[in-house]
Design a protein that fits this description.
alpha/beta, Rossmann fold, 7 helices
Length: 392
């Protein structure tokens, strides 16, 4: 019966990736053009074929317009110290809980690149030998798919973001053989069925939305997903699923405040109303501007220029952002909290006072609450960003 249920979930997930695009909340709401900040480049094709997903990583470029790779970490990039200080996570431990990363294609240098990153920042080793790191294909085996330059960099960002946020978390990487909806759904199910996993990050989107996707419906696991890097567009799947924690993005600036950082809604953070997915009960008393599921739920650093994480990939350091950065950060915060009973997406709504409320910045021209940050819930940033783990 378990196998039959898993296969059913995969079939429905595949249909979801090939459905119709998410609808706008009203005739007057104008979607933003795809965000492309100066000096950045999208790592994956932003317009995948129907039935396929795209990763949400955006890299900082040099003067030549190419991704900037340096021998030493760029001074402008966020470090593990920045992530932990900005979100009040210093000194917190997970006790070895596992965060799973679901991505497409293989990444031959994953373990060696991760080792270089963690060594650079004085983080404890996380290797396959010591049991901290596991890598598997969508079937749970070691028949890894071929490498893909865009999705490889995405995986580097994901595992480095987990490392920066939760240094003692174990990491599971499940590699789908392609970026097709069926294969990513199978990988998500595989992650959920793996012992020890408490959170699963999905840093990809498809501009489609359908109800009831069993591949992403797993109680007692925090399943996070990027809302996308194109500003207000009406939402993105799987973040549009009400069982998933939809993660938006912020611009984060180091400053002289008591916190040491300030945040505004990032112009690229995805938000909007799902086309058909129902409104979860924890949103029903809020003014979201949607009759269906609204995005986001929470957010974290995503602006590649202001809060973009320094990662190590393919022989060099790079500064990378996008909601591909914020999704694994939030998954790791759930791992630190250990509060993943039932549907974890409800927790930020019940503990809003424990979050940093982001009240400035916009991601489109439709106004509040879907396109402009403000007090309480808003589309680009949801209920806010982590202030320790009390909101999760």
């Amino acid at each position: 019966m378990k196998n039959r249920a898993m296969l059913t979930g995969l079939a429905v997930a595949a249909l979801a990736m090939s459905g119709l695009g998410a609808a706008l909340p009203s005739a007057t709401a104008k979607p933003a053009e795809p965000a492309q900040a100066p000096g950045t480049v999208r790592v994956c094709n932003p317009h995948p074929a129907p039935g396929f997903a795209t990763c949400q990583a955006i890299a900082v470029t040099g003067a030549d317009g190419k991704m900037l790779r340096t021998k030493t970490p760029p001074a402008t990039g966020f470090t593990p110290d920045d992530v932990q200080a900005a979100y009040n996570l210093k000194g917190l431990e997970s006790g070895g809980r596992t965060v799973a990363i679901v991505d497409a294609y293989g990444y031959s240098n994953l373990e060696s690149d991760l080792a270089k990153y963690r060594d650079t920042y004085g983080l404890p080793p996380c290797t396959t030998k010591n049991g901290c790191l596991r890598i598997m294909d969508q079937y749970g085996h070691r028949n890894y798919p071929p490498d893909n330059a865009g999705w490889d960099l995405e995986q580097a960002l994901d595992v480095d973001a987990v490392s920066a946020t939760c240094p003692d978390c174990k990491i599971l990487v499940v590699q789908a053989k392609t970026n097709g909806g069926y294969n990513l759904g199978m990988a998500a199910n595989r992650a959920a069925l793996t012992k020890g996993v408490v959170a699963i990050s999905n840093s990809y989107t498809a501009a489609h939305d359908r109800r009831h996707q069993p591949a992403y419906h797993h109680k007692n696991i925090a399943i996070t997903a990027s809302t996308g890097d194109s500003g207000f567009q009406g939402g993105a799947y799987p973040a549009s699923d009400p069982h998933v924690v939809a993660v938006g993005g912020t611009s984060v600036t180091r400053d002289g405040s008591s916190r040491g950082y300030s945040e505004a809604a990032w112009s690229g953070a995805g938000s909007g109303c799902a086309r058909v997915s129902h409104q979860p009960r924890w949103q029903q008393k809020l003014d979201t501007g949607c009759k269906t599921r609204a995005m986001s739920d929470v957010s974290a650093a995503a602006d590649p220029n202001l809060g973009g994480l320094t990662i190590y990939y393919n022989g060099g350091f790079q500064q990378v952002g996008g909601t591909s950065e914020s999704s694994p950060i939030i998954a790791s915060v759930y791992a630190l909290s250990g509060n993943t009973t039932g549907w974890p997406g409800r927790l930020p709504y019940h503990h809003a006072k424990s979050l940093y409320d982001v009240t400035t910045g916009t991601n489109g021209s439709c106004g509040p609450p879907l396109c402009a940050a403000g007090k309480g819930w808003d589309g680009p940033t949801g209920m806010g960003t982590p202030n320790g783990v009390e909101g999760f």
